[in-house]
Amino acid sequence: MSNKAIFLMTGTLLLAACSPAEQSSTPAPSSTPAVQSVESAPAVESEAQLIARARGIHERVITLDTHADINTANFMEDNNYTSDLDTQVNLPKMIEGGLDVAWFIVYTGQGPLTPEGYAAAEANALDKFSAIHRLAEQFAPDTIEVAYTSDDVRRIDSEGKKVAMIGVENAYPMGLDLGNVQRYQEMGARYMSLSHNGHSQFADSNTGERDDVWLHNGLSELGREAVAELNRWGIMIDLSHPAKTSNMQVLELTRAPVIASHTSARALNDVSRNMDDEQLLAVRDNGGVVQATAFRSYLNTEKNSANRALLAELRASIAEELGFELQDFAVVRAMSDEQRAAYDALVEQVDAIAQPRIAAEVDAIAPPVDVADFIDHIDYMVDLIGIDHVGISSDFDGGGGISGWNDASETFNVTLELVRRGYTEEEIEKLWSGNLLRVLDDVQRIAAQIQQEA
Fold this sequence. Notes:
TIM Barrel, 9% strand, globular, alpha/beta, 9 strands, 2 domains, six-stranded parallel sheet, disordered N terminus
């Protein structure tokens, strides 16, 4: 039986697990995308018919999430994604939610721009590349396979298997050697960002907005050379974390379309990790795609802060009743292993007591950021730059997750909300995977041309 068949069998259970708010109809946005059409929907459609239609669409399209972080401890022989681990993405959750393609991320936090820093970063990156290949080639080759092209994605999906793809978040591990672009491409990298949170040797980061300290005023000379090398080897350039100055310079230099693997619309929520209209329009003109991301504080900071504050009050009051005080991250990090283990055990007690009270005492008063908030960003970007330039990402296991799509098992809820908003099956297919795979095709076609020219 294929994974998608299993998804259909478990679909009823998935819907039943959603909260009433997640199952209820969401009002249409005040400004719906100009390209939307409801021609495929019946003139009069019951709730059950709408859900059934959404399930059919979800089954037929290839659902692709461009950003899922990993911890290599979860890619070992006795502990890996064949089990339903306490992670937002793993194979059982992908099967349950009908998520077909997960881009697993070779992420490296920004460190010192020194030989020692580059060496440590490279070791981290290679460890993550190896972990992804272990999962697909040793632990679960009958269930998941690494894809390198859009044809691979469609073939693997047609065989009833899940698809793994590889993105590199932060080019820092490449050090000063641009020969690593080809090396990473051969290991499966199909997109790469030139910086993360903190300026790299290639590009300034969005974090410069916090203190107005910049290293390159956009791209370094090495970063400019990296753009050409990424084009040459068919790796999509990811604009999610670099500064606007860096991104605009990339867009001036690149011969191939770009992506933003996990970002949202700054016009709806003014944070440095979101793209303003000028960047969104530039990506459109470049032929690229922006993958809206289900990250609470990027979607609606005010709403998320209110919900988090009320939850913190609840947890603090429970901790006080138990006779201890919750500590901030810095204090916990400074604890000894023994102290931290004891503290974590107490926190588990707090969370166990809090869990059944959250709906009534937190969410009912200060609602959490949810799927409707997420689709608001998709609506905005589709209206601004067109249906062909918008996609979907979660940032699961890296801080992402919202009410209704808090792990891969809830992926159907995204499709359901898109159907509620009036998107057709053709448009939903573009959002879930069609646009991203088109860009990958274009980038690889242009790379072949560049190599032929050389």
